[in-house]
C-alpha cells in the first residue's frame, strides 16, 4: 500500500429483521466517518451486509454473505427482541444471524480477526419477564457473552445512540485503542440497607408461615411461601449483581419487578436498574411503586418513591420536573413530620438548584437539611450536606472553605466505612485541586474514585471520574490520554442516558479538530 493510499477497513453488520433503522444508521455512521475522520486517519471504512448481496445478485444469498464475513476486518452484531430468521440449512445454528456470528467468532479464535462488536438494544423489563421464544434466545446469548468474556458487548437505546456506538468503536479500532473484553468489570453492589430490609422481611415471612401452619391456614401458608420465595430470589439477584453476573441478575429482577407487590423488592429492583444505567426500567419500577403505594396518598412509601423519581429526572437533565417531584415528596414528609425525609428532600432540592447555577437557593436548602440532621444526630446526612456545601463554596471561589467541607464529609464517611460516599468526596477534592491547578493531587483523587466505584459498579460516578481525568490530562497536554478518558466517559454516559454525554462528546470533537489543525501547521 502506498503512503497516499488509504487503509481499507471492511465492516460487516449482522442483525435480525427488527433493526432496519439501525442498519441504515450503520451506513450513515460510516459515510460520516469516511468524510472526516477517515481523511485524517488515512482510512476508508467499507460497509458490508446482506443488502450488498441483494443488490448484486437479486437475492439474499447466504453463501455470498459468508464470503463477506470471511473477508471483513470488523464484524458488528446488533440484536433487539428477535433471534433471527429460521435457518434449516445452517445446522447446528438456529438462525442465519447466529451462523454469521459464530462464523466470525471461529475465524477470530484462529487468527485474531475480525474484531467483533456486539450491541443490544434495550428491552423493557416487562417484556423480558415474559420473553417468548425469540427474546429468550437473545437473553441466553447475552448471558453466554457475559460468562465467556471473549467479546465486548454494549447496550443502546435508539437508532441515534447506535450510530454513536458504531462511530466510537470504529474510531477506536482504526487507532488501535480498543479495550480487551476481559478488562470489563460490571459488578454492581446494591445498598446494604435495602438488602437488610429484604432479609428482615424474609425472616418475618418464614416466622408467619410457621404460625399459619399451626393455625392450619393453608391459603396464608401458600401466600407467605410465595413472599419468602420472592425475597430469596431478590437476595440471589443482588448476589449475582455483586459477582458481576449482571445478565443473570437482570433476568431475575425483570421477573421480580413485574410480578411482585412487595415495595422492598421494588426498591432493590429500582436500585439495580438505576445503577446499571437502564433508566427506562428504573422509571417503570417507580411507576409501579407509586401505583401500589398510591400517588395521592400521604405515606412514607409514596414520599420515598417521589424522591427517587426526582433523582432520575435530574440524571436526565430535566431539572424542572425534578424540582416538581421533590416538592411533592417534601409536602408529604412535612405532613408526616418525617424529619429525616424532610432533610433528604432539602438536600435533593439543593442539588437541583446547584445544577441550575442558583447557588443562593442551593445553600439555603443545604443549611436547612444540616440543621435537621444535627438535631437528629444523623451524621450520615450531615456528611452529605457538608459535601454539597463544599460544591457551593467552590463554585463561589471560596476554595479554603470548600476543602474544609469536603474533608469533614470524608472523615465521617471513612469512619463509617461508607465507600460510596468516600468516593464522592474524593471526586469533589479532585475537582477542587484541578481548579487550583494542582494536577497531581487531582489525578490522585480521581483514581481513588475509580478504585472504589469500579468495585461498586457506579457507572455515573465512574464516567465523571474518566471525564475529569481527561481534563487533567488535557491541561498537561497529554492528548492520547485525554482521548482515551473521554471515550470511556462517553460510553458510560450513553449507557445511563446522561445529558453530560453530549458535552463530553463535544469536548472530544474539539480535541480531534485541534489535532487535525495542528497536523497542517508543520513548517516546510
UniProtKB/TrEMBL annotation:
InterPro entries from the UniProt entry: DUF4062, TPR-like_helical_dom_sf, TPR_rpt
Q: Does the keyword Coiled coil apply?
A: yes
* TPR repeat segments: 303-336, 343-376, 383-416, 423-456, 463-496
* Coiled coil regions in record: 195-241
Q: Which superkingdom does the taxonomy of this entry point to?
A: Bacteria
Question: Which Gene3D superfamilies does the annotation name?
Answer: Tetratricopeptide repeat domain
Q: Where does the DUF4062 domain start and stop, copy by copy?
A: 10-104
List keywords of the entry alphabetically.
Answer: Coiled coil, TPR repeat
Q: What's the protein name? A: Tetratricopeptide repeat protein
Please tell me the species this chain comes from: Chlorobaculum thiosulfatiphilum (Chlorobium limicola f.sp. thiosulfatophilum)
